[in-house]
Amino acid sequence: MLKSGKFTDKKILLIDKDQVKTNDRTWCFWEQEPGFFEQLVYREWSHLDFFGEGFTATLDVSPYQYKMIRGVDFYAYCFSEIARHPQVEKLFGEVKGLARRNGKVILHIDDREMDLGDPVVFNSLLKEKRSKKDIVLLQHFKGWVIETETPFFDPGKATLMDFRIDQRHGTSFVYVLPFTEHAALVEYTLFTPALLKDEQYDEGLKSYINEYLGISTFLVKEQEFGIIPMSNRIHHFYKDGIYNIGTAGGQTKASTGYTFRFIQKQSDQIVQALINERPLSSIPKPPSRFRFYDNTLLHILYHDQLPGKQIFSTLFRRNDPRRVLRFLDNESTLADELKITSSLPTWPFLKAAAKTIFP
Predict the structure, then answer these.
(1) How far apart are CA 45 and CA 108, in angstroms?
(2) pLDDT tens-digit profile of 14-35?
(3) What pTM did the predictor assign?
(4) Quick one: pLDDT at residue 22?
(5) Where exactly are the structural domains of the chain?
């Protein structure tokens, strides 16, 4: 909104728990063209290693670039830009309630109640009330930025997925993002209904670094931990007088947890609608077939009907990686999707599809 220059006459209130300044997370995504946050891209790769079940390859995804943005750079840039615009007010505290009441928006933050009048409200706080029909997998991950004395890494390529690790907890893989020959982010990722104990993430990381990277001596420079819910629940863009964005507005892909680029695409649609004075209800929803695909795969992973290791290995072994990335971005054609679906094991997916349609 600020970059567009079209909202200089509007007051904007930004509410957050605190002003984060640490490198507490990393966002990874792929694009063919420079994106809105291009200047923040810390590293990018067009060649990605994949280690799966009966399939190992270096994938050439060009013209896509697999990009990485560090949290600390993102926060610094955004708050610096926001500070240049006096019409933006920042309010920090824990939001305990937000609702419309008698035509007004009432905010409960920390121990205060505030009447905000009648603004347009965008909310990214996820508050879930689950039913028995809901499937919820957690994508949870712990990452270490490690540094070595001797060169170990190839900065020219990253590891997208390495499934060689133990799968006893469920679908588990590691990805590796090299910064230099001496430093990389190593991320241990799982798709399971429950979290692990903290020491189990550490054990998984140590084991992978020692056994598969062949590194016995290293220094942990930074750590990060995150949880992304992967659910078949419908998250409404507009509900009770409030527009929901981010994961709260359904921008997390249910089958993979990818969120960052979906948020950017939705944000652009919202701003264009506001600039052109179109109702936000005119923003098109993603084609329903993608939700069907996601829920089918989510059903299989949740009920452990096929190992995730086998599914993703088959997906990349039998398809051009660019087709897979288009599919995961909800930008594939029906022809792409026919090739994708026909490459996967037929019977388990048919059964899961039937359960998805007729729960």
Answers:
(1) 44
(2) 999 988 888 889 999 999 999 9
(3) 0.92
(4) 83
(5) 288-357
